[in-house]
# Entry
Amino acid sequence: MPAGPLALILLSALLHAGWNALVKRLPDTRAATVGVLLGATVFAAAAALHADAPWFATPRALLLGCLAGAFEGAYFITLGAALARSSLGVAYTIARGGAILLVWPLSVALFAEPLTPLGALGAGVILGGLVMCALPAMRGAGSGVLFAVLCAASIAGYHLCYKAALAAGARPAPLFALSLAVALPPNVVLLGAQRRRALVALFRARPLVVGLAGLLCTASFVVFLGALGSAGAGAVLTLRNTSVLFAQGFALVIGERPRRVEVAGAALVAVGAALLGWPPR
# Structure
């Protein structure tokens, strides 16, 4: 992979882990994720205004953008639930690593990306890392693990939709803005009246933190989509999800004390992701 897309992927990974850590620090993670979604929608819309026309060159690109939004909506719902029920390190590692295992075979089938023995080894290493993270967490945070798995499926869904939409003629920033605009209403409705009040209170009490998380979220995804447009879907997702190591570092910063087995599991996921993304000879 060329140095340019690689640098974009790593930057996106750092930004993504950063906004997840900010959400985990807030008192109501479910309300906080909707706050980030709202902020990110505003920032993404502003970025879309500066994109070259046409934003969606084909009806297929527009339709895929809406479908990505459905998966994005599920992503924010399940992410907030996972972070509320388990640690940042566990929820993040399972969600991102699980998405890799789902996207990799689908990328081979749908986008003719190469299937290599090294890639198969990487998938096995990722699976081992996920098991190491999930089994200890299941004892006290089983529902958190379940929501993280559902989050992984949502990530895989929107990732493949984004890749297909870009190939069909969508611009990255407008594509992300459309997706978030589709994802926002169901998230607000499902939040419930009590948590909507908590969301308003959160904006009043911590506007800078919520705004910063929304900005990091937007920047992360716009950079990610830029890399996705110039590299293979499987390779981009696998390398981006080395962010599990960034997440472990942020977990320490916000006061979590991950078990050694969790850190080792995250390291295996990162190694497996690198093997999956290794270019074929």
